[in-house]
């Protein structure tokens, strides 16, 4: 029988944290998981450390380690579903002194983690995404609410003062705040945003890009479906004396109207959903003036891995980003060619900058643990976010993930 996710828990919005499912140690799946994990560690430069001090694995002292605190619960969860490894960390069944290093090793050896004969059973092990998380207009709002509307105070604890929640672009000796400004300014530069530019931003965040564009003299329309971000961005625009140049709208990108000399969208496509990528790019094409430019910052993954993961519900979807899907560069090119006149005319890959960004977020998140607790979030929630940040950092360190600043233009327009 194919597994489903209808009864699986998810993040409690504005509540204490995730409800981790109970576990029953023992059973065939637990024994299989113990065997597979032991064999896997023997092929990889990692260590599995038991509570009694014994260790297995090909990694020597100092190698990234999984330090088991409750082995029976760990193997039972890992043998249950794809979210089991993450859930066991959230529950405190295991720890690691180097989570990014551990996940970087796993990402680099992803095809070898499960023996080839068992990969045929993947569709029984990995649950399918629920239809309720499909990124329709209403579904997208629900998905965004479960992540971005957690608490503005929460995000303020680990982001830099610009409140920018996307990859920075570091110059020599720059702070995270300076690197975020560099990233934004580059997008404004390549799309030609300046005095008098009518700029459409798809995905407001907390408003920093709109502010920097307005300070150049641009007239900015910024779209978001996060009420918490809309409130903050609107307030920041007024406080900066730029409310006459910045119109923040609580509106889905598909409902946008008007025409614009430039369109910018930073790490928004990952929340759009693969089924809606054509509509996302058609909307940009429809709203962009002749001769206009669009700047897209997008996280990407290899095309074959994207195809393999298209319909699966991973722990990231379940607990962090419901409905999300990271595209490949090929998928972006195909969507543009098949549904628009836009083409990629400039591409800056900056994955290692994202690894550095995530590392700094994780350091700041750890330093703010007491404040996160005072906001009402439980220890499993805090461990979940620590895992998410480390897991993401490792994806960029290993090259499994990348992030691109893309310039889109219509050939022949100029």
Write a concise keyword list for the protein shown above.
414 residues; alpha/beta; Rossmann fold; seven-stranded mixed β-sheet; four-stranded mixed β-sheet; globular; disordered N terminus
Describe this structure in words.
It is a single chain. This protein has helices at 28-43, 71-78, 84-90, 99-108, 116-119, 122-125, 137-148, 152-156, 176-190, 208-215, 227-239, 269-272, 277-287, 303-309, 315-320, 329-339, 351-367, 369-374, 379-397, and strands at 47-49, 55-56, 65-68, 94-95, 198-202, 219-224, 246-250, 260-266, 288-300, 343-349, 402-409. It folds into 2 domains: 28-128, no CATH class; 133-409, Vaccinia Virus protein VP39 (Rossmann fold, 3-Layer(aba) Sandwich), CATH 3.40.50. α11 (227-239) links the parallel β6 (219-224) and β7 (246-250). α4 (99-108) crosses α19 (379-397). The chain has 19 helices and 11 strands. Strands 7-6-5-8-9-11-10 form a 7-stranded mixed β-sheet, with helices on both faces. It has a 4-stranded mixed β-sheet with strand order 2-1-3-4. With 414 residues, it is an alpha/beta fold. The radius of gyration is 22 Å and the shape is globular.
What is the secondary structure topology, with strand pairs?
Layout lengths: L27 H16 L3 E3 L5 E2 L8 E4 L2 H8 L5 H7 L3 E2 L3 H10 L7 H4 L2 H4 L11 H12 L3 H5 L19 H15 L7 E5 L5 H8 L3 E6 L2 H13 L6 E5 L9 E7 L2 H4 L4 H11 E13 L2 H7 L5 H6 L8 H11 L3 E7 L1 H17 L1 H6 L4 H19 L4 E8 L5
Parallel strand pairs: 1-3, 5-6, 5-8, 6-7, 8-9
Antiparallel strand pairs: 1-2, 3-4, 9-11, 10-11
Helix pairs in contact: 1-2, 2-3, 3-19, 4-19, 9-10, 13-16, 17-19
């Amino acid at each position: 029988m194919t597994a489903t996710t209808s009864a699986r828990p998810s993040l409690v919005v504005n509540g204490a944290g995730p409800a981790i499912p109970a576990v029953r140690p023992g059973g065939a799946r637990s024994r299989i998981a113990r065997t597979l994990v032991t064999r896997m560690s023997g092929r990889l430069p990692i260590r599995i450390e038991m509570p009694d001090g014994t260790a297995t694995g090909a990694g020597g002292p100092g190698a990234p380690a999984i330090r088991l605190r409750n082995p029976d619960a760990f193997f039972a969860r890992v043998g249950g579903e794809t979210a089991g490894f993450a859930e066991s960390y959230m529950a405190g069944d295991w720890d690691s002194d180097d989570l990014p290093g551990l996940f970087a090793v796993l990402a680099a050896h992803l095809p070898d983690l499960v023996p080839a004969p068992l990969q045929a059973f993947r569709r029984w092990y990995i649950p399918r995404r629920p239809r309720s998380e499909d990124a329709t207009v209403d579904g997208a709002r629900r998905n965004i609410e479960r992540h971005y509307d957690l608490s503005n105070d929460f995000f303020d604890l680990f982001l830099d003062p610009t409140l920018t929640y996307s990859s920075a672009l570091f110059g020599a000796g720059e702070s995270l705040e300076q690197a975020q400004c560099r990233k934004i300014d580059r997008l404004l530069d390549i799309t030609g945003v300046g005095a008098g530019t009518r700029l459409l931003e798809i995905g407001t965040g907390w408003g920093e890009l709109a502010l920097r564009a307005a300070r150049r003299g641009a007239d900015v329309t910024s779209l978001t479906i996060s009420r918490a971000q809309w409130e903050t961005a609107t307030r920041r625009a007024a406080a900066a004396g730029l409310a006459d140049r910045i119109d923040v709208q609580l509106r889905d990108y598909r409902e946008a109207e008007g025409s614009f000399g430039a369109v910018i969208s930073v790490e928004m496509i990952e929340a759009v959903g693969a089924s809606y990528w054509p509509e996302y790019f058609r909307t940009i094409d429809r709203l962009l003036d002749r001769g206009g430019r669009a700047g897209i910052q997008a996280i990407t993954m290899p095309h074959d891995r994207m195809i393999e993961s298209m319909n699966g519900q991973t722990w990231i979807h379940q607990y962090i980003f419901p409905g999300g899907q990271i595209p490949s560069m090929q998928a972006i090119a195909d969507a543009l060619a098949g549904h628009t006149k836009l083409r990629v005319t400039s591409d800056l890959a900056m994955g290692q900058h994202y690894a550095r960004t995530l590392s700094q977020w994780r350091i700041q998140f750890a330093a703010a643990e007491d404040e996160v607790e005072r906001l009402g979030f439980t220890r499993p929630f805090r461990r979940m976010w620590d895992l998410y940040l480390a897991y993401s950092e490792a994806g960029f360190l290993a090259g499994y993930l990348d992030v691109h600043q893309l310039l889109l233009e219509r050939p022949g327009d100029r």
